[in-house]
Amino acid sequence: MQRIAIFTDEPGWHGKQLKHAFLNRGYQADYVSLTDCKIQLDDISFPIKIKGFEEKLPYGVFVRGVPGGSLQEVIFYLDILHALKQLKIPVYNDGHAIERSVDKGMTSFLLKNAGLPTPMTWVLRARKDALLIAEQKLKQGQKLISKPLFGSQGEGIRRIEKMTDLLWLTSSNGIYYLQHFINCAGAGYSDIRVFVINNQTVAAMRRRGNSWLNNVARGAYCETIELNKRLTHLAIKATATLKMDYAGVDIIEDKQGNYHIIEVNSIPAWKGLETVCPLSIAQLLVDDMLFRYQCPV
Length: 297
Ligand SMILES: Nc1ncnc2c1ncn2[C@@H]1O[C@H](COP(=O)(O)OP(=O)(O)O)[C@@H](O)[C@H]1O
Ligand SMILES: [Mg+2]
Known about the structure:
The structure is a single chain. This protein is an alpha+beta fold. It has three domains: about 1-90, 3-Layer(aba) Sandwich (Rossmann fold); about 100-115 and about 185-265, ATP-grasp fold, B domain (D-amino Acid Aminotransferase, Chain A, domain 1), CATH 3.30.470.20; about 120-180, Dna Ligase, domain 1 (2-Layer Sandwich). Helix content is about 30%, strand content about 25%. The chain has helices at about 10-25, 70-85, 95-100, 105-115, 125-140, 230-240, 270-275, 280-290; strands at about 1-5, 25-30, 35-40, 50, 60-65, 90, 120-125, 145, 160, 175-180, 190-195, 200-210, 220-225, 245-255, 260-265. Strand 5 (about 60-65), helix 2 (about 70-85) and strand 6 (about 90) form a beta-alpha-beta unit. The radius of gyration is 20 Å and the shape is globular. It binds adenosine-5'-diphosphate and magnesium ion.
């Protein structure tokens, strides 16, 4: 049986779903941590070593998690993904897609540069620059949000609503990422998650948070929604702009009915989404990877 590596440190529900989906197509998938890979140039015919794949490299790798760590550790993990791709092994999503999306500053820049609607954003090094922008915006009645450049599941995100909030305004690892806060349409707080695979939308949901953070990991409640043409177009264009095989695109609708793309996730979860749609997202992902990269059966 051909073998696939699923890069993850916490396989959990998603890992299990993927393993089953690969097995359904005749592939054995095994979990591996990127921390257990090596570059060994003394064996140039086989320069990347993956634990459990010592005899033969996998037919493809599915990236479900890239561990955190020092800058050098993270670059090393991305090097492994880049090197595997160079060796013509399908990497789903590839290292470049992950780099672009994990970095919220680059995501914002690329979305804006492609003419897509994304909230006004500043990525700054100096506290005085951050304070200047924040003061100006608050005076104009514009609330802001500050986020870590590398963050997920709503971690470290704060809202700046009033001048006294500036007292605690601190950088996240030396960088200030400030963004216009978008007041969402309707009652309470919600945003929209659209799942895109191979340039097609496959499912969407509304996430209703307990507060303005609408991450499922923070307890947001999932509701079914119908995709309209504009949402479909934006989600597909955002995924293509970040050159991803698949993505979870976060979009907020404001009170005027305009959409704002907040984030394009290259390693999105789909457990919440499956509670409101009858699809097997893992099988769709696996089939897309195997079909498009023509992995042999
Ligand atoms: N500019 C914004 N205006 C209003 N709410 C926002 C904004 N940015 C993020 N949020 C809320 O915070 C959540 C998490 O933000 P996001 O940028 O997606 O980071 P994470 O990677 O932590 O999910 C979003 O799903 C949304 O509910
Ligand atoms: Mg998000």
